[in-house]
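User: Predict the full complex structure for these chains.
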Amino acid sequence: MSKKRIVYFVIFILFVAFLLFAPRGNILQTDVLNTFAGSSAAHPLGTDNIGRDVYSLILEGGVRTLEVVFLATAISFFVGTTLGMISAFSGKTVSSVIQFVADFTLIVPSFIVAMVFSALFGFSPILAGVVFGIGNMGDYVNQAYHLSLVLKKQAFIDAEKVVGLGRVRILVFHVVPNIYRQLLVFLGNKAGNVVVQYSGLAFIGLGTDITNPDWGTLLYQYRSYLFSHPTLVIYPALAITAVTVFFHFMFDNRDAEREAVTIYD
Amino acid sequence: MKKILTFIGKWLLIFLVASVAIFLLVRMMPTSPVNQWLSSYNLPHTEENIAYVTERMGLDKPLIVQYLSWMGNFLRGDWGYSLVTHLSIKDQFIQRLPYSVSIGVFGILIAAAVSFFLGYKAALRPGGFADRFSSALAIFAQSLPSFILSVFVIYFFSVQFKVMKFFTGSGAYALITAILITALYQIGSLSRVVASAFREEMGKSYVRFSVSRGFSKQYVLFHHAWRPVFCRLVSAVIADFAWVFGGSTVLEFAFAIPGISYFLVDSMTASDYTVLQTYILVVVIWMFIVHLVLNVVLNIVDVRRRK
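Assistant: Here is the predicted structure of the two-chain assembly.
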């Protein structure tokens, strides 16, 4: 791991710890005498249209967003990579079934599926995380498939097969270490996308209500106060943007991407 | 020929899986359509009423029979009536489809056209304005959800400066703005695809040979290298389309455009499950048409694929 990676990683851990453990007030507590209050010691980010503490709401929304991101990226990363590798190392039938599943998840818009699920079964971060995880899996399957296919042709894999190593062992100890780096770059992109998708879902708000303090829900509620009380809109918007930009730079490897082409420049 | 058959087979399978999935899902729903129907007519939920309506709706038959009759009716063009408004679902969809389709199609067409030129400029001068601009746009699109931008646009242009009417009048402003926002959100990533494809072609021997012979690189890139780049762009568009469709849902909602996704949100708030089933099938058909058209385009442009 490079120095830059370690710095990002530490910041990320601190951020998660802050979201989880920072002291906060009761998000359900309304205070109609004290609506649209400015920043104060009791309410660091002020209060909203029904006097709830915006700071606590944003923290709580952050926890919910992280739940979705963790669940979604974990599912699509682990399941997607595993399926991709299996598909590369197995027979035609299994391979084409996995390819079909991957295509299916790529074709059916996962946002729509998440919307339908939350309409049918109620809105919850767990459900959204699972749906986004499965919906974004296709890219990982394809990527892992192509990377493992290249590896499969190499001599050391053949040698291991001849020596008699089991398939699982080859995949876990010899294929995974060779492909996970490329897949991690993907993860940064997708994690940011999940945050955006989830906030969009909460913005539409099927199956949710204002007691669920998701950033998207907050934006939907506060959107009409953009001019009278701009901070109400700006705080959740800033939270979403900050998290996605952070994910982008955390997993970005621009240096690897930029290679000089000889005779022109 | 074999490729065409696999393509059709794959889509039939997708249609089948999607329709079975949504059919089973709505039957696992906590609220029953029978109660929904009775409530919409203000009828009491007595046992006789429930039994009568269940029979009339055919919900007492085995699941497989229900599925087959639903599919048969759908394919014959009988999409049923809404449980809540009792309007024909088919008419509703036909009225609303043009909005959703035009946001998706025009948004992506504008994005593809702009990003082809932006990517071309970016490839010619790495580190130049176009290169930086397209990277910035890509990060912007990834990090600021489109609905936040819509909220800002609505309140600046409509409430503050009062130059556009989004929620009254013909709704043309809302539609055009939604199309432009959809395009804006695709330009960043698509122009990165175009730029890296052009860079890749620039490394290939046919381009280097032509440049060495004295053709300008602009000429070579635009007259010879555009084909593979265009194919990469179309492939990227195919891959992005599901994402675009999800994104346009949010925009339809933010601008209150009467498209099919807004219709879905409306009906689901009233838990009207008949619309939901049809909606999923319409989405699958719509994605099929997009994939079909774009694959045909790819086959026309890319000579190598035809063999």
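Chain B has a mean pLDDT of 84.
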